[in-house]
């Protein structure tokens, strides 16, 4: 029986849990017929998350909100998997990069993007400059780290890569142009490796659910 | 031997690790003679945290930054302690409230306070927005705490340590009694926590702010020094080898039927991949997927995503599946040069059809485009470095330049 993730489709915060589930073999499905602004305001939903935000994961033991917490929970549903690191210091580093991706990457991208989309506060040019400067500083630090590392921690994908990739991806598709990101070539290379490769893998192995949706049929041409 | 925590004193982010250490009996000491703006800009420090921010914990196995990550690490240095919860769901709820305290409490307090301290320009309408967000978040927290003494379970966990440090900071710097009286359970919670012995030992006396700090008349110059200029890496582009058809010296060799046979030989043998794919029954990811990337030759082959353009036609599942089946039959003419996966997705109509194709060469073979009519029913996107954007089919193709000019709309 699959765990139900309450979110619309195409939500990068939902992707974190869906991708983690792919690695751990846990079945997580997007709830059907989710309507943003309606489904997350019902009394039933607010019992799960009094803040009314998505995503929210329904489990047999209770609901969990906050996308990174959901991803961590899903990752730990399977013991001894590579997502969580193999030592205490690796665990510390995974948590470090998860938090960095939230406070340094996601927060700054949001401060730049959302005012331009008309939410998250009014658009104020001087604040936007500040957000861009902060983001460049953060991506610079990330670029330095990725110059000598293929993955954020260790030598394979961990939860830190899943969370970082989802946060970076939002920036890349919505507001970070090539001319902006070319200053951070290792970050560009990292995103390609993580995002594209993972999609290729998911299609080769008939990932189920596929990006949160039911897989009806998979044909192979060979 | 104590672990060293690099931070000034009185830093609420450092408190998190110090309080966790009190609970777990781990020795964590603040570094001596820390000078903000100096000690955290040295090359040695930047090796530990390239961002130059504090706190940073030095351990025998390496440095850790991000205050919540440090607190988690310290909490786990001792097995089976009550800070980390006693079940998977308790663990998840602890993580949930830690993240909530960061994104909903700390972030909003920061957006209200820092402009008034002059670190960021002060914009009144933005401040209103931050205050409204904070009220919403504290309201949700208040609801939870109405029926819970602690955030998770029945004793202090890491969630309480992190939340308390973030709340305490707000309480002493900007949240007056008249503001917090709207959230009585949050008030009760905060005072209970800061009076716990392990908290009091680290934080000391807590006195709630009596007024909101005034806006600085002159915005202080931003504290962070100019961002270090990122060294521009010279793009390394190996010149593409000129493709020259090898001279055929043996007469009996039949003329190549296909332009793809004239490509320079590739280390990837398609049949080997197909065999690996078909024969791997267990541990698919570790064996087949890993094997794929080991053999994949991006010079000799290319990967493509396809997306059916007319998904709204796909109202009957078996008809949709048959359509895909027909497409694959018509692809038979390129079997030697291609591998593909086609997926039909969705629990209710209209069903989506998406696919992945591996083709010999850098382009979709011309003879395939010419002879298989299904090809033009799909949008084809090459999976390559410069086209990361295009892989996400739910997003409109995004022209970065346009958005930068876009006006605000609601």
Outline the secondary-structure elements.
The complex is a heterodimer of chains A (222) and B (410).
Chain A lengths: L2 E4 L5 H13 L3 E3 L12 H6 L7 E4 L2 E4 L1 H10 L11 H30 L7 H23 L11 H16 L3 H4 L3 H20 L10 E7 L1
Parallel strand pairs in A: 1-2
Antiparallel strand pairs in A: 1-3, 3-4
Chain B lengths: L2 E4 L5 H13 L3 E3 L12 H6 L7 E4 L2 E4 L1 H10 L11 H30 L6 H23 L11 H16 L3 H4 L3 H11 L2 H7 L66 H10 L4 H12 L5 E8 L8 H14 L7 E8 L6 E9 L5 H6 L6 E5 L17 H6 L5
Parallel strand pairs in B: 1-2
Antiparallel strand pairs in B: 1-3, 3-4, 5-7, 5-8, 6-7
What does this structure look like?
The complex is a heterodimer of chains A (222) and B (410). Chain A is of the alpha+beta class and 222 residues long. Chain A has two domains: 73 residues, 3-Layer(aba) Sandwich (Glutaredoxin), CATH 3.40.30.10; 136 residues, Glutathione S-transferase Yfyf (Class Pi), Chain A, domain 2, CATH 1.20.1050. Chain A is 55% helix and 10% strand. Chain A has eight helices and five strands, in the order βαβαββααααααβ. A four-stranded mixed sheet of chain A has the order 2-1-3-4, with helices on one face. The longest helix of chain A is centred in the middle third of the chain and has 30 residues. The model of chain A has no long low-confidence stretch (mean pLDDT 91). Chain B has three domains: 75 residues, 3-Layer(aba) Sandwich (Glutaredoxin), CATH 3.40.30.10; 116 residues, Glutathione S-transferase Yfyf (Class Pi), Chain A, domain 2, CATH 1.20.1050; 144 residues, Translation elongation factor EF1B, gamma chain, conserved domain (Alpha-Beta Plaits), CATH 3.30.70. In chain B, 41% of the residues lie in helices and 11% in strands. In chain B, the strands form two sheets. A four-stranded mixed sheet of chain B has the order 2-1-3-4, with helices on one face. In chain B, a hairpin with a 2-residue loop joins β3 and β4. The longest helix of chain B has 30 residues. Chain B starts with a strand and ends in a 5-residue tail after the last helix. At the A-B interface, β4, α3, α4, α5 and α6 of A face β4, α3, α4, α5 and α10 of B. Chain B: InterPro entries: EF-1-gamma_plant (IPR044628), EF1B_G_C (IPR001662), EF1B_G_C_sf (IPR036433), Glutathione-S-Trfase_C-like (IPR010987), Glutathione-S-Trfase_C_sf (IPR036282), Glutathione_S-Trfase (IPR040079), Glutathione_S-Trfase_N (IPR004045), GST_C (IPR004046). Chain B: GO terms for molecular function: glutathione transferase activity; translation elongation factor activity. Chain B: It comes from Leersia perrieri.
